User: Which sequence fits this backbone?
């Protein structure tokens, strides 16, 4: 099936419909997304949308774990590389996992709402997902609007639990709140997504530029990549030249009532909005004293909602924080997403791929 999950789009498969061998499975997924042969960025011979946000795959199975109902593997198909990447999770694509499980017979819906615990294989962490199922069927229509997606839809509530160090093994994987690469101060953080935060002003930018303008800024992108290639090993990710993490995030003082203003690169293209778990990592950096966000972030005087501003608007995150330790500990991150089933059917794989 093809779903829009949050502000992304991808193909969703039952795990038992794919080869067990990972190399063969990847060949099949690449053929589904890119077609036969090299991917020339257009993905013209496959179902991919030639953009990182629409070149995604979810593989779902019934979980054998006592703490989970479903297992979810996320695969980023790297546009232009004809390659897969499993380093990260994707919170947008996660929004479609439970609807897909119900639609494909992996999970039985309950009347009213259906709650499922999803084990995210990429990070070994859990997310409680709540979808609307009046009459025992998935409801996609509703009044919830999220920035970056036209119209409105039914709510999908995602409660992430204990996601610190999802890919790097620690919330602050370098062991420091601030590192310096190429003379530029950065904060390396992983609370669901490895992210490198940089004050936009330190690179001579504002973070209020349009994504199109930033994508044309060759000098900026060159500097960001040089920093990223140094930050990756320091974060425990090894050589990241061919990886899609860490994400790079320019930050500035908020303009629209949020806690911070952002422009995120994923990692070489400026995001039209901001990724789900990327936003969680950014918000977490804002509540930790001494990071590069200190002095720029405008934290709420009360309440648990932390809106992160991005080019399309803002992404509101609910954080439950324990301030008793040396570093604030985010116990739970709650997010509101939407999803919609776009199509179901058969994707034809060239015979030579098998």
Assistant:
């Amino acid at each position: 099936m093809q779903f829009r999950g949050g502000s992304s789009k991808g193909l969703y498969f039952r795990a038992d419909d794919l080869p067990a061998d990972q190399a063969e499975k990847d060949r099949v997924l690449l053929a589904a997304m890119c077609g036969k042969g090299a991917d020339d960025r257009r993905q013209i011979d496959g179902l991919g949308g030639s953009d990182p946000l629409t070149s995604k795959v979810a593989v779902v199975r019934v979980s054998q774990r006592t703490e989970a109902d479903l297992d979810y593997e996320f695969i980023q198909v790297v546009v232009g590389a004809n390659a897969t990447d499993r380093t990260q999770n994707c919170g947008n694509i996660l929004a479609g996992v439970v609807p897909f499980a119900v639609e494909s017979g992996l999970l039985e819906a309950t009347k009213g709402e259906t709650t499922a615990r999803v084990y995210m294989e990429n990070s070994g962490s859990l997310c409680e997902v709540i979808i609307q199922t009046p009459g025992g069927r998935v409801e996609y229509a509703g009044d919830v609007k999220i920035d970056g997606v036209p119209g409105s839809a039914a709510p999908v509530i995602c409660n992430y639990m204990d996601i610190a160090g999802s890919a790097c093994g620690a919330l602050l994987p370098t062991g420091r709140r601030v590192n310096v690469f190429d003379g530029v101060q950065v904060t390396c953080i992983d609370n669901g997504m490895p992210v490198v935060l940089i004050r936009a002003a330190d690179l001579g930018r504002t973070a209020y530029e349009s994504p199109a303008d930033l994508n044309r800024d060759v000098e900026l992108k060159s500097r960001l990549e040089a920093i990223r290639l140094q930050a990756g090993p320091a974060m425990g990710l090894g050589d990241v030249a061919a990886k899609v993490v860490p994400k790079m995030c320019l930050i500035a003082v908020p303009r629209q009532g949020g806690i911070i203003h952002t422009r995120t690169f994923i990692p070489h293209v400026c995001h039209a909005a901001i990724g789900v778990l990327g936003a969680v990592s950014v918000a977490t950096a804002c509540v930790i004293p001494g990071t590069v966000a200190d002095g720029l972030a405008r934290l709420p005087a009360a309440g648990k909602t932390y809106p992160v501003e991005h080019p399309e608007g803002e992404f509101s995150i609910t954080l439950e924080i324990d301030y008793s330790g040396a570093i604030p500990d985010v116990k739970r991150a709650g997010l509101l997403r939407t999803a919609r089933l776009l199509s179901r059917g058969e994707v034809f794989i060239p015979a030579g791929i098998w």
Observations:
- The mean pLDDT is 95.
- The CA atoms of residues 194 and 246 lie 5 Å apart.
